[in-house]
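Running this now, will post back.
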Amino acid sequence: MIKYLGSKRTLVPAIVELVRAVPGARTVLDLFSGTSRVGHALKAAGYRVLANDHLAYAYTLARCYVEADRETWEADARRLVAELDRLPGRPGYVTETFCERARYFHPRNGARIDAIREAIAARDLPPLLEAVLLVSLMEAADRVDSTTGVQMAYLKQWAPRALNDLALRVPALLPRAAAGPGRAFQLEAVDAARQLEADVAYLDPPYNQHAYLGNYHVWETLVRWDRPPVYGTACKRIDCRERRSPFNSRRRFRAAYAEVLEAVRAPVILASFSDEGFLSRAELEALLATRGRVQVIEIDYKRYVGAQIGIHDPRGRRVGRVSHLRNTEFLFVVSPEGLALPPALAASPARVAAR
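Update: finished.
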Protein backbone atom coordinates (compact mmCIF):
# COMPACT_ATOMS: atom_id res chain seq x y z
CA MET A 1 0.00 0.00 0.00
CA ILE A 2 1.07 3.62 -0.47
CA LYS A 3 3.30 5.44 2.00
CA TYR A 4 0.91 7.30 4.26
CA LEU A 5 1.08 9.80 7.09
CA GLY A 6 -1.00 8.45 9.95
CA SER A 7 -0.94 4.88 8.67
CA LYS A 8 -2.10 2.41 11.29
CA ARG A 9 0.03 -0.43 9.93
CA THR A 10 1.58 -1.37 13.26
CA LEU A 11 -1.73 -0.94 15.12
CA VAL A 12 -3.73 -3.15 12.78
CA PRO A 13 -3.23 -6.43 14.74
CA ALA A 14 -4.46 -4.76 17.93
CA ILE A 15 -7.48 -3.26 16.15
CA VAL A 16 -8.44 -6.63 14.67
CA GLU A 17 -8.07 -8.34 18.05
CA LEU A 18 -10.28 -5.73 19.69
CA VAL A 19 -12.99 -6.26 17.07
CA ARG A 20 -12.72 -10.03 17.64
CA ALA A 21 -13.37 -9.39 21.34
CA VAL A 22 -16.79 -7.87 20.56
CA PRO A 23 -19.36 -10.67 20.99
CA GLY A 24 -21.36 -11.36 17.84
CA ALA A 25 -19.75 -8.61 15.77
CA ARG A 26 -20.12 -9.07 12.01
CA THR A 27 -20.13 -5.59 10.44
CA VAL A 28 -17.48 -2.92 11.05
CA LEU A 29 -17.69 0.70 9.90
CA ASP A 30 -14.35 2.35 9.11
CA LEU A 31 -15.44 5.98 9.06
CA PHE A 32 -12.15 7.59 7.93
CA SER A 33 -10.72 4.79 5.82
CA GLY A 34 -7.63 6.44 4.27
CA THR A 35 -5.55 3.71 2.62
CA SER A 36 -8.06 1.05 3.78
CA ARG A 37 -5.28 -0.78 5.59
CA VAL A 38 -7.57 -1.37 8.57
CA GLY A 39 -10.56 -2.30 6.41
CA HIS A 40 -8.44 -4.72 4.37
CA ALA A 41 -7.27 -6.48 7.54
CA LEU A 42 -10.81 -6.70 8.92
CA LYS A 43 -12.09 -8.11 5.65
CA ALA A 44 -9.30 -10.71 5.77
CA ALA A 45 -10.49 -11.59 9.28
CA GLY A 46 -13.96 -12.32 7.93
CA TYR A 47 -15.84 -9.13 8.80
CA ARG A 48 -18.19 -7.23 6.53
CA VAL A 49 -16.55 -3.82 6.23
CA LEU A 50 -18.19 -0.51 5.40
CA ALA A 51 -15.35 1.84 4.44
CA ASN A 52 -15.87 5.58 4.07
CA ASP A 53 -13.69 8.53 3.09
CA HIS A 54 -14.61 11.80 1.40
CA LEU A 55 -11.44 11.99 -0.74
CA ALA A 56 -11.53 10.37 -4.17
CA TYR A 57 -8.22 8.53 -3.89
CA ALA A 58 -9.18 7.04 -0.52
CA TYR A 59 -12.59 6.00 -1.85
CA THR A 60 -10.82 4.30 -4.76
CA LEU A 61 -8.52 2.44 -2.38
CA ALA A 62 -11.57 1.29 -0.41
CA ARG A 63 -13.35 0.09 -3.55
CA CYS A 64 -10.29 -1.99 -4.36
CA TYR A 65 -9.36 -3.35 -0.95
CA VAL A 66 -12.77 -3.60 0.73
CA GLU A 67 -15.47 -3.83 -1.95
CA ALA A 68 -13.78 -5.66 -4.84
CA ASP A 69 -13.70 -9.41 -4.20
CA ARG A 70 -10.87 -11.56 -5.55
CA GLU A 71 -13.11 -14.23 -7.03
CA THR A 72 -14.94 -11.64 -9.14
CA TRP A 73 -12.20 -9.30 -10.30
CA GLU A 74 -8.73 -10.80 -10.05
CA ALA A 75 -8.64 -12.64 -13.40
CA ASP A 76 -9.65 -9.55 -15.39
CA ALA A 77 -7.33 -7.39 -13.33
CA ARG A 78 -4.34 -9.61 -14.07
CA ARG A 79 -5.04 -9.54 -17.80
CA LEU A 80 -5.46 -5.78 -17.92
CA VAL A 81 -2.50 -5.03 -15.65
CA ALA A 82 -0.29 -7.06 -17.97
CA GLU A 83 -1.61 -5.14 -20.99
CA LEU A 84 -1.23 -1.73 -19.39
CA ASP A 85 2.25 -2.52 -18.11
CA ARG A 86 3.43 -2.97 -21.69
CA LEU A 87 2.35 0.51 -22.80
CA PRO A 88 5.11 2.90 -23.87
CA GLY A 89 5.25 6.34 -22.30
CA ARG A 90 3.26 9.22 -23.71
CA PRO A 91 3.91 12.56 -21.96
CA GLY A 92 0.85 14.50 -20.81
CA TYR A 93 -0.50 16.27 -17.74
CA VAL A 94 1.45 14.23 -15.17
CA THR A 95 4.74 14.69 -17.02
CA GLU A 96 4.24 18.42 -17.45
CA THR A 97 2.94 19.09 -13.93
CA PHE A 98 4.67 16.57 -11.67
CA CYS A 99 7.91 15.89 -13.56
CA GLU A 100 8.81 19.19 -15.24
CA ARG A 101 7.14 21.92 -13.16
CA ALA A 102 7.74 19.78 -10.07
CA ARG A 103 9.96 16.70 -9.54
CA TYR A 104 7.75 14.05 -7.97
CA PHE A 105 8.56 11.50 -10.71
CA HIS A 106 11.30 11.06 -13.25
CA PRO A 107 9.95 12.20 -16.64
CA ARG A 108 10.37 8.68 -18.04
CA ASN A 109 8.00 7.35 -15.40
CA GLY A 110 5.73 10.36 -15.66
CA ALA A 111 5.18 9.62 -19.35
CA ARG A 112 4.22 6.04 -18.52
CA ILE A 113 1.81 7.20 -15.80
CA ASP A 114 0.18 9.48 -18.38
CA ALA A 115 -0.14 6.70 -20.95
CA ILE A 116 -1.54 4.14 -18.49
CA ARG A 117 -4.00 6.59 -16.93
CA GLU A 118 -5.32 7.64 -20.33
CA ALA A 119 -5.72 3.99 -21.32
CA ILE A 120 -7.71 3.23 -18.15
CA ALA A 121 -9.97 6.23 -18.79
CA ALA A 122 -10.59 5.14 -22.39
CA ARG A 123 -11.74 1.60 -21.54
CA ASP A 124 -15.08 2.42 -19.85
CA LEU A 125 -14.56 -0.36 -17.30
CA PRO A 126 -16.89 -1.54 -14.52
CA PRO A 127 -16.29 0.82 -11.57
CA LEU A 128 -14.73 -1.79 -9.26
CA LEU A 129 -12.39 -3.10 -11.93
CA GLU A 130 -11.37 0.46 -12.77
CA ALA A 131 -10.67 1.05 -9.08
CA VAL A 132 -8.39 -2.00 -8.96
CA LEU A 133 -6.41 -0.71 -11.95
CA LEU A 134 -6.18 2.81 -10.53
CA VAL A 135 -4.83 1.42 -7.26
CA SER A 136 -2.30 -0.62 -9.23
CA LEU A 137 -1.14 2.58 -10.95
CA MET A 138 -1.16 4.65 -7.75
CA GLU A 139 0.95 2.09 -5.91
CA ALA A 140 3.34 1.71 -8.85
CA ALA A 141 3.84 5.48 -8.93
CA ASP A 142 4.35 5.53 -5.16
CA ARG A 143 7.20 3.02 -5.52
CA VAL A 144 9.11 5.36 -7.87
CA ASP A 145 8.36 8.76 -6.37
CA SER A 146 10.97 11.25 -5.17
CA THR A 147 9.36 12.80 -2.11
CA THR A 148 9.95 13.24 1.59
CA GLY A 149 7.07 10.90 2.31
CA VAL A 150 4.22 13.29 1.58
CA GLN A 151 3.43 15.44 -1.45
CA MET A 152 4.07 18.77 0.22
CA ALA A 153 7.60 18.64 -1.20
CA TYR A 154 9.95 16.67 -3.41
CA LEU A 155 13.66 15.97 -3.08
CA LYS A 156 16.24 18.29 -4.60
CA GLN A 157 18.10 15.26 -5.99
CA TRP A 158 16.35 12.18 -7.35
CA ALA A 159 15.65 9.51 -4.76
CA PRO A 160 17.28 6.21 -5.86
CA ARG A 161 13.85 4.60 -6.25
CA ALA A 162 12.79 7.36 -8.67
CA LEU A 163 15.29 6.03 -11.23
CA ASN A 164 13.66 2.59 -11.26
CA ASP A 165 11.19 1.76 -14.00
CA LEU A 166 7.53 2.02 -13.09
CA ALA A 167 5.98 -1.46 -12.95
CA LEU A 168 2.35 -2.37 -12.31
CA ARG A 169 1.28 -5.12 -9.91
CA VAL A 170 -2.14 -6.53 -9.16
CA PRO A 171 -3.26 -5.25 -5.74
CA ALA A 172 -3.73 -7.76 -2.94
CA LEU A 173 -7.43 -8.46 -3.47
CA LEU A 174 -9.22 -10.55 -0.86
CA PRO A 175 -12.05 -13.05 -1.25
CA ARG A 176 -15.47 -11.99 -0.08
CA ALA A 177 -15.64 -11.92 3.71
CA ALA A 178 -17.59 -14.64 5.50
CA ALA A 179 -19.86 -12.02 7.11
CA GLY A 180 -20.86 -10.56 3.74
CA PRO A 181 -19.74 -8.22 0.96
CA GLY A 182 -17.94 -5.02 1.87
CA ARG A 183 -18.95 -1.61 0.62
CA ALA A 184 -17.11 1.63 -0.02
CA PHE A 185 -18.64 5.08 0.39
CA GLN A 186 -17.51 8.61 -0.40
CA LEU A 187 -19.42 10.66 2.17
CA GLU A 188 -18.57 13.31 4.69
CA ALA A 189 -17.93 11.53 7.98
CA VAL A 190 -20.99 12.83 9.79
CA ASP A 191 -23.26 11.81 6.90
CA ALA A 192 -21.75 8.32 6.82
CA ALA A 193 -22.17 8.07 10.61
CA ARG A 194 -25.85 8.92 10.28
CA GLN A 195 -26.55 6.61 7.36
CA LEU A 196 -24.48 3.48 8.00
CA GLU A 197 -25.17 0.99 10.78
CA ALA A 198 -22.63 -1.50 12.14
CA ASP A 199 -21.76 -3.61 15.17
CA VAL A 200 -18.45 -1.78 15.63
CA ALA A 201 -17.38 1.63 14.36
CA TYR A 202 -13.70 2.55 13.99
CA LEU A 203 -12.87 6.26 14.18
CA ASP A 204 -9.49 7.51 13.03
CA PRO A 205 -9.98 11.11 11.89
CA PRO A 206 -7.24 13.58 11.06
CA TYR A 207 -6.38 15.09 14.41
CA ASN A 208 -3.84 17.79 13.64
CA GLN A 209 -3.12 20.40 10.98
CA HIS A 210 -1.86 17.92 8.36
CA ALA A 211 -4.49 17.92 5.59
CA TYR A 212 -4.65 14.68 3.64
CA LEU A 213 -5.75 16.40 0.43
CA GLY A 214 -2.68 18.65 0.49
CA ASN A 215 -0.38 15.81 1.48
CA TYR A 216 -1.65 13.46 -1.25
CA HIS A 217 -2.89 15.85 -3.92
CA VAL A 218 -1.08 13.91 -6.67
CA TRP A 219 -3.14 10.78 -5.90
CA GLU A 220 -6.35 12.83 -5.84
CA THR A 221 -5.55 14.19 -9.30
CA LEU A 222 -4.47 10.81 -10.63
CA VAL A 223 -7.78 9.25 -9.58
CA ARG A 224 -10.07 12.14 -10.54
CA TRP A 225 -8.12 12.77 -13.75
CA ASP A 226 -9.54 16.28 -13.92
CA ARG A 227 -6.24 18.03 -14.79
CA PRO A 228 -6.84 20.87 -12.34
CA PRO A 229 -5.00 24.19 -12.20
CA VAL A 230 -2.19 24.03 -9.65
CA TYR A 231 -0.29 26.51 -7.52
CA GLY A 232 3.03 26.84 -5.73
CA THR A 233 6.27 24.92 -5.97
CA ALA A 234 4.50 21.72 -4.90
CA CYS A 235 1.95 22.09 -7.74
CA LYS A 236 -0.99 21.45 -5.44
CA ARG A 237 -4.51 21.25 -6.80
CA ILE A 238 -6.19 24.64 -6.62
CA ASP A 239 -8.99 23.17 -4.50
CA CYS A 240 -6.52 22.44 -1.70
CA ARG A 241 -7.16 26.09 -0.79
CA GLU A 242 -10.90 25.56 -0.58
CA ARG A 243 -11.63 22.01 0.62
CA ARG A 244 -10.82 22.45 4.30
CA SER A 245 -11.68 19.73 6.78
CA PRO A 246 -12.85 20.78 10.26
CA PHE A 247 -10.71 17.93 11.58
CA ASN A 248 -7.60 19.87 10.52
CA SER A 249 -8.64 22.92 12.57
CA ARG A 250 -7.83 23.22 16.26
CA ARG A 251 -10.78 25.59 16.66
CA ARG A 252 -13.30 23.34 14.88
CA PHE A 253 -12.07 19.86 15.78
CA ARG A 254 -13.92 19.27 19.06
CA ALA A 255 -17.34 20.20 17.65
CA ALA A 256 -16.78 18.12 14.50
CA TYR A 257 -15.69 15.06 16.48
CA ALA A 258 -18.58 15.40 18.94
CA GLU A 259 -21.07 15.63 16.06
CA VAL A 260 -19.71 12.46 14.43
CA LEU A 261 -19.57 10.64 17.75
CA GLU A 262 -23.19 11.44 18.53
CA ALA A 263 -24.29 10.29 15.06
CA VAL A 264 -22.48 6.94 14.99
CA ARG A 265 -24.91 4.02 14.74
CA ALA A 266 -22.88 1.29 16.44
CA PRO A 267 -22.96 0.02 20.04
CA VAL A 268 -19.17 -0.39 20.21
CA ILE A 269 -16.71 2.28 19.11
CA LEU A 270 -12.96 1.94 18.63
CA ALA A 271 -11.07 5.19 18.25
CA SER A 272 -7.46 5.98 17.42
CA PHE A 273 -5.81 9.17 18.57
CA SER A 274 -2.36 10.51 19.30
CA ASP A 275 -0.71 12.59 21.99
CA GLU A 276 0.12 14.99 19.13
CA GLY A 277 -3.57 15.61 18.37
CA PHE A 278 -5.69 18.69 19.00
CA LEU A 279 -7.28 17.18 22.12
CA SER A 280 -5.63 15.76 25.20
CA ARG A 281 -6.30 12.20 26.26
CA ALA A 282 -8.52 13.46 29.10
CA GLU A 283 -10.53 15.68 26.75
CA LEU A 284 -11.11 12.85 24.32
CA GLU A 285 -12.04 10.41 27.08
CA ALA A 286 -14.66 12.87 28.31
CA LEU A 287 -16.20 13.07 24.84
CA LEU A 288 -16.16 9.31 24.34
CA ALA A 289 -17.67 8.68 27.77
CA THR A 290 -20.97 10.06 26.46
CA ARG A 291 -21.26 6.79 24.47
CA GLY A 292 -20.34 4.28 27.17
CA ARG A 293 -17.52 2.94 29.32
CA VAL A 294 -14.11 3.94 28.01
CA GLN A 295 -11.01 1.73 28.12
CA VAL A 296 -7.69 3.06 26.86
CA ILE A 297 -4.64 1.27 25.50
CA GLU A 298 -1.43 3.32 25.19
CA ILE A 299 1.06 2.25 22.54
CA ASP A 300 4.55 3.65 22.00
CA TYR A 301 4.75 4.48 18.29
CA LYS A 302 7.32 5.54 15.71
CA ARG A 303 6.26 8.81 14.12
CA TYR A 304 5.26 9.16 10.47
CA VAL A 305 7.80 8.79 7.68
CA GLY A 306 8.29 12.53 7.22
CA ALA A 307 9.48 12.84 10.80
CA GLN A 308 12.04 10.12 10.22
CA ILE A 309 13.40 12.00 7.20
CA GLY A 310 13.45 15.46 8.79
CA ILE A 311 12.07 18.91 8.02
CA HIS A 312 12.31 20.08 4.40
CA ASP A 313 11.33 23.19 2.49
CA PRO A 314 9.05 23.04 -0.60
CA ARG A 315 12.06 22.26 -2.81
CA GLY A 316 13.00 19.25 -0.73
CA ARG A 317 16.00 20.83 1.02
CA ARG A 318 16.51 19.82 4.63
CA VAL A 319 16.04 22.91 6.78
CA GLY A 320 15.64 21.64 10.34
CA ARG A 321 15.54 18.78 12.78
CA VAL A 322 12.49 17.16 14.30
CA SER A 323 12.11 17.37 18.05
CA HIS A 324 11.28 13.68 18.62
CA LEU A 325 10.92 10.44 16.68
CA ARG A 326 8.36 8.61 18.84
CA ASN A 327 4.96 9.44 20.24
CA THR A 328 2.09 7.74 22.06
CA GLU A 329 -0.87 6.36 20.15
CA PHE A 330 -4.10 5.70 21.99
CA LEU A 331 -6.68 3.05 21.18
CA PHE A 332 -9.96 3.85 22.93
CA VAL A 333 -12.60 1.15 23.35
CA VAL A 334 -16.09 2.45 24.07
CA SER A 335 -18.91 0.03 24.88
CA PRO A 336 -22.02 -0.02 27.10
CA GLU A 337 -20.61 -2.34 29.77
CA GLY A 338 -16.91 -2.42 28.98
CA LEU A 339 -15.13 -5.00 26.87
CA ALA A 340 -13.12 -7.99 28.02
CA LEU A 341 -9.81 -7.14 26.39
CA PRO A 342 -7.98 -9.88 24.47
CA PRO A 343 -5.32 -11.54 26.63
CA ALA A 344 -2.55 -10.50 24.21
CA LEU A 345 -3.43 -6.84 24.70
CA ALA A 346 -4.21 -7.07 28.39
CA ALA A 347 -0.82 -8.70 28.99
CA SER A 348 1.14 -6.37 26.68
CA PRO A 349 3.56 -3.69 27.88
CA ALA A 350 1.05 -1.08 26.70
CA ARG A 351 -0.69 0.57 29.64
CA VAL A 352 -4.40 -0.18 29.83
CA ALA A 353 -6.71 2.09 31.80
CA ALA A 354 -10.47 2.26 32.24
CA ARG A 355 -12.84 5.06 33.05
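The mean pLDDT is 91. More later if anyone needs it.
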